[in-house]
Design brief:
The chain is an alpha/beta fold and 358 residues long. It is built from 14 helices and 15 strands.
Length: 358
C-alpha cells in the first residue's frame, strides 16, 4: 500500500538543491506525494512550477497548513533538500522535531543521520513514529566487494552519465525506464544515489556514503541482483556527478562496477560552473566524452539535455547544434520525449530492436 507523504523543501523547490523534492514530484513509486512545503512558492501547483504541467500537488507554507488543508491522512515527512554539504541546517532541526510531533514518519537522505540523534530518536519513540536514514550505509559485513560476476551479465546495460551533479541523470534514466516499460520492454533501473532510493528503486545504494573499498562491489552487486532477479531486457544505471569533477569519484565506480555496454550523456548547455563549486568551470562536453572513451569500451550513443535557464527556442537550437557537432541523437526527454533516445538504444542493441518492433 502506497503511503501519503509531504516533502519539505523550504526555499529550494525547483532549484538544484531541491533535487530530492523535484524528483519525487516527477516520479514516486513508494509514496504518494500529496504536498510540498516551501513558503516562497505557497499556493502554486508543484508540477506546474517544475515542468509547466499541473499535477495537483500543491505547495504549502508550513507543516501545519499542509496537514490542515490536505484531505487525506499523511503518514510521512520527507526532507527534500539535498545541500552540497549533505548536512542538516541548524534552522531545520526544529522542523524535523515538529514533523515527529505531528506523528509523521521521517525520511532523510542527508549524511547527518537522524537515527544517531538521541533527541530525535527519543521524540520518535514518544510519538510512535519511525525515522529512515536512506543514505546510511549497511555494516561492512553486509557490503560487497567486486567479484567479477558482472562479466556474466548478458543483458544490455546503459549508464546515464553526465557533466555535473544534479543535472538530470536520474530523471532521464527513470523516464527512459518508464517509456520502455510502456512499450513492453522489461527495463530495470539501478540507482546510485539517495533520491532514487526514496523514489522506490529496488536496486542500488547511495554510493557517496559507501567506503571506497566497497563502492565498486556495491555497484556490481546491484546490477547483478537486478539481472538475476528480474531477467530484464535492459538495465539502466544512474550516473553520479561526472568523471572530470575533482570532488567526486562515484562515476569511476559506476564504470568499473556496472561495466555498461553503452552510455547516454546528460548535459546542461547553460551551466558553466560546477554545482556547489562556483570557482570550478565545467569542461567542454567533448572532453568528458573523451575521458569516458579512455576509461570504458562503451560508446556514447546519445546526448540528453537539461533545459535549465533555457527558453524553448534556445533549447531547440541547442539540440540542432549538438546533433550537428557530435553526430549523436540529442533531446531533452522532459520537453521532447524519448523517441530519439529509444531509437539510439534500439540501434545499439538489436535484441531490443526486435522486441520493440513486435
Amino acid at each position: 500500500m502506497v503511503s501519503n507523504a509531504i516533502i519539505f523543501c523550504e526555499g529550494f523547490f525547483g532549484e538544484l538543491d531541491g533535487k530530492t523534492a523535484n524528483g519525487l514530484v516527477r516520479y514516486s513509486g513508494t509514496y504518494k506525494i500529496v504536498g510540498v512545503i516551501d513558503s516562497t512558492k505557497e499556493g502554486m501547483d508543484a508540477g506546474e512550477y517544475l515542468d509547466d504541467k499541473k499535477n495537483g500537488i500543491l505547495i504549502y507554507r508550513s507543516i501545519d497548513e499542509a496537514l490542515s488543508k490536505i484531505k487525506e491522512p499523511v503518514n510521512y515527512f520527507i526532507y527534500g533538500i539535498a545541500p552540497g554539504n549533505t548536512r542538516l541546517p541548524k534552522e531545520h532541526r526544529g522542523i524535523i522535531l515538529d514533523a515527529i510531533r505531528h506523528h509523521l514518519n521521517v525520511v532523510s537522505g542527508l549524511m547527518d543521520f537522524f537515527t544517531e540523534d538521541r533527541a530525535m530518536m527519543k521524540e520518535a519513540r514518544a510519538y510512535g513514529v519511525k525515522i529512515f536514514d536512506i543514505r546510511k550505509p549497511p555494516t561492512k559485513r553486509k557490503m560487497h566487494l567486486f567479484t567479477g560476476k558482472i562479466f556474466d551479465v548478458k543483458t544490455p546495460i546503459v549508464a546515464v552519465l553526465g557533466t555535473d551533479t544534479a543535472i538530470g541523470k536520474r530523471t532521464t534514466a527513470i523516464y527512459l525506464k518508464e517509456v520502455l516499460r510502456a512499450k513492453g520492454i522489461n527495463a530495470v533501473f539501478v540507482t546510485t544515489g539517495q533520491t532514487g532510493i526514496v523514489q522506490g528503486a529496488k536496486y542500488g545504494r547511495a554510493l557517496d556514503a559507501i567506503p571506497g573499498e566497497f563502492i565498486i562491489g556495491e555497484v556490481e552487486y546491484a546490477v547483478v541482483q537486478a539481472y538475476e532477479n528480474e531477467h530484464p531486457d535492459i538495465i539502466l544505471v544512474e550516473g553520479q556527478s561526472s568523471l572530470s569533477h575533482p570532488a567526486f569519484l562515484s562515476s569511476f565506480a559506476i564504470l568499473k562496477g556496472a561495466r555498461p555496454k553503452a552510455i547516454i550523456m546528460q548535459h546542461a548547455p547553460k551551466r558553466k560552473i560546477y554545482c556547489d563549486y562556483p570557482f570550478l568551470p565545467i569542461p567542454d562536453l567533448q572532453k568528458e566524452i573523451n575521458l569516458i572513451k579512455k576509461l570504458s569500451k562503451a560508446g556514447v550513443i546519445a546526448i540528453t539535455l537539461n533545459h535549465e535557464k533555457m527558453t524553448d527556442e534556445e533549447l531547440d537550437r541547442a539540440v540542432k547544434n549538438y546533433e550537428a557537432k557530435y553526430q549523436l541523437p540529442t533531446a531533452d526527454v522532459l520537453k521532447h520525449g524519448a523517441d530519439k533516445i529509444i531509437k539510439a538504444i534500439a540501434d545499439t542493441f538489436p535484441s531490443l530492436a526486435a522486441k520493440l518492433e513486435t
